Amino acid sequence: MKNGMTTTDATVFGKSWKMKDVRGCSEEDKGDCSDRASVESRQRESKGECGILLDKDGPFRECHAKINPQGSFKDCVYDYCFYKGRQDAICKVISSYSAACQDAGATVYAWRSAKLCSRSCPKNSHYEICPSGCAPSCASLLVPVACSAVCKEGCTCDEGFVFSGGQCVPMAQCGCAYNGIYYTSGEQFFPNGLCSQQCTCKAGGVVECKAFSCGPNEECKVIDGIQKCQPIGSAKCQAAGDPHYLTYDGLAYDFQGTCTYTLTKTITESSNLVPFAINVENEKTGNGQVAVTKLVSIDVYGYRISLLQNKKGFILVNGVLNNLPLTIQDGKIRAYQHGNNIIVRTNFNLELSYDLVYFVLVTVPGNYKNQLGGLCGNYNGDKKDEFQLPDKTLAADATTFGSAWKVQIAGVTCDHGCGAAGNACPVCEDKKKEVFQNDNYCGILKRSNGPFSACYATVSPDVYYNNCIYDLCMGNGDNKILCHNIQSYVTACQAADITIQPWRSESFCPLACPANSQYKVCADTCTMTCAGLNDPAQCPTTCAEGCECNDGFFFDGQQCIPIENCGCFESGKYFRFGQSIVSSECKQRCTCTAVGIMCEITFCQDDETCMLKEGVYGCFKKEGQCTLIKETQFTTFDGISGKVATSGHFEMATNGGIF
Q1: Taking all residues of the chain, what is their mean pLDDT, rounded to a whole number?
Q2: Strand (E) or helix (H) holding 360
Q3: How far apart are CA 42 and CA 47, in angstroms?
Q4: Where along the chain do the CATH 2.10.25.10 domains lie?
Q5: CA–CA distance, 407 with 281 (Å, rounded to integer)
Q6: CB 243 within 8 Å of CB 292
Q7: What are phi and psi of 420, to 5 degrees?
Q8: How many C-beta atoms lie closer than 10 Å to residue 591's C-beta?
Q9: What's the pLDDT score for residue 657?
Q10: End-to-end distance of the chain based on CA atoms, in angstroms?
Q11: Which of 252, 266, 568, 589 lies 20 to 30 Å from 560 when distance is taken between CA atoms?
């Protein structure tokens, strides 16, 4: 062990070399699989799954003399037992043995098939067990490197394509070599380590460099292996309840509009910042004089991502319904469950959090200071000029300010709520205030030595306390409103990395959890997911309260299920077991099966059309349509055109008419 002593306990040995605690990681001995012996016996007799490793006439037969397969076989059986026979678990073991064999110079024959460990490859590439020679790449063409003749199974580019930054591209689209380092076409980089010079790889392998300096609230720094101008600090804005807004600069105000509004967006053009816009759609609730958030959407990188009220486990991307978690463009955008909240996070540290009921929290990096507009304010450090209109002038009141940031949507009827002259918002009676200020209501938020006291110095409870009292008044003391208000403060505190003490009980704001899960004030809803079996997630380092799956169960975005019921994760998307997805052209249907994603060709019938309906692509019956142009030219429901020779009045459609 690390202290020089010895032990026969593997768990104790492993613990002694631990460097630090990581959320979601466990040091517990899971024990032995109850039917491991019978599994091993069956697998030894099998020539498939784990048994393929031992098959004397199998694809690894020429490797047995070089590398004993027994160790890998036992590892495979162990994983088969604990992961209930999931192929994605045992395929990793078989693949590791295959790689070891090839490294040892042994010939490995084709062992993957449609039923065992099938391998999908990116666009313009295909799988080979032993690609001939060294795989051509743009980097090797521009910066020649030594080539090993050892086989390495994997994806290789199709004829006419070469590797470039992990993708297969035509040779004409290769990037650039600069100081012995390869960069993909269009990539920007800082060659001197000081961010004082920025270079861009242009078409044709040309590198253009220019003098450069980091912008305001930025510093040249390496984070996650990438050196660039990194933001200094961040700011948060929120919309809660009726709704109540708290801007980046700390101004609290109420605005009861029921339209769609710009919560925050970039309003300046900066080549160094990624533009984005976050909109909220509000709706009336309660007595009709107040409103709550119904939908939140974010526009970034050419995608519109929408979170819908009470729509758990799903997210809309350009109108298409997707399961959570979701990764877009190799991590440029990630969406996942974190406790009670859905998080959408970009690679430039913009983060949107929504509990799908009551509370929206936006975090922007510090380099967006003085670049934003919307209901969240201008983020310039001065709360006195927060009501800035799109034309940069200042509004006199919250209603004028809020209505100016309305997003125009054709055919939608809405209003800007109370607050304007002659339309005062309802107020809370003093008697009700006295009741709701008690510790068994909103008073718990400010109770000395209460469950949230550790947060008071970092996140003031005053705004949340006032919002709580007002919302309870408008909701006639509804207990759900009380709990959502308190939960919003918990979310803000935990987002600030403050430890919250347990505050829920069976009699006070109990949180109902689905089967096979339990409530925890710091719930892990990220690491123990079905998608995580194939995709190691980049989980948040902060806590979030919510429902955590019991041991032996995995979160699939909606519920906690046995591992054998988990689905498939491919190309950044999670598919539930048995779920079928039709492509946007309705030419392919892909289904999650026990052996992975299986796709087949499909098509629509003559009386059907491919369309997006309720977030899902599919073939739907064509809707009948007839037209009459310039009084005489007509087209029937069946697409037949003709002319009406005489003038007069005609029936466009009837049970016995001409159409």
Answers
A1: 88
A2: strand 359-365
A3: 10
A4: 125-174
A5: 9
A6: yes
A7: -80, 170
A8: 16
A9: 44
A10: 86
A11: 589
